[in-house]
Amino acid sequence: MGKVTDILNNSNEPVTICDFSPPKGSDPLLQCNAASLDATFLSTAYSPGQSVRVDPAMLAYTIRKLTQKEVIFTLATRDMNKLAIQNHLLGANLLGLENVLIVGGDAFSKINLASIKSVKDFTTTQLIAATKSMNLGQDYSGRKLLTSTNFCVGATINLGNNIQEESILTHKKVVAGADFFVTQPIYDTEILERFQDNYSILNERFATPLFVGLQILASNSPTFGKVPTKIKKELESGRDGVSIAMELYDKFVSKGFRNIYLIPPIFKGGTRDYNSAQTLLSYMITKLEK
Q1: Considering the entire predicted model, what is its pTM?
Q2: Around 270, how many Cα atoms within 13 Å sit in the side-chain half-sphere?
Q3: In this predicted structure, what is the pLDDT of residue 64?
Q4: What are the residue ranges in the chain where pLDDT is below 50?
Q5: What burial letters (b/e) apply to 36-58, b meaning 16+ CB within 10 Å?
């Protein structure tokens, strides 16, 4: 198995992460789409839609075992206390998993809060630091572990937030030990360039590996981040979301942003269009061969 940073350091080609939803059941056939995706890494999401699904670490292990593909599992701070989260991380490490993407998890609605509670024992920055401490053989309470973990830790950047505030938060994640970042979907590299400039002013040059969020849009599919009006109109007029994503990918590459965090279309009930994702991944591979 390869760590994200190791593969980045040893590859002259762009590296791709494809988001993958855990199924709402434990039948191994429910994850069969994983075998057809030619991404460098498959990243198992954390309870998309706040619904009950297979644990992302267990799914990542199963995908790797069945397909030999590289994997990342997502871990949210929202649902477990410090003890449970670090137990979970030890279990994931026991399974041989090395890549974890740490997120906060979407806030529960008032309706959900009537039947479920948000824990938030760690902030995302605190969990990044605590996970890196586990790599040094120490748990959250300062006690020694019998064996150290071996995690490459990813974190998120949301460029839909205030750029200066997000720059400050990102720097805290860097200091805590984040090894790589993925962004929420963007549609113009200008906002990413502004973030990098702002980060440099506040701290130093942004040098941590970055994967640019690229969502394949589709009618009746939720969007993440603010979609430009021009692109909305193109989609409404019948333009295929994959062709829009291809155009965006070319723009990202032309600006030097080659590593991609790909988000396939998602529909009501949590189904996803992985065929569209593979079409785009095949396009990326074709571009490399030219």
Answers
A1: 0.94
A2: 16
A3: 95
A4: none
A5: ebebbbbbbbbbbebeebbbbbb
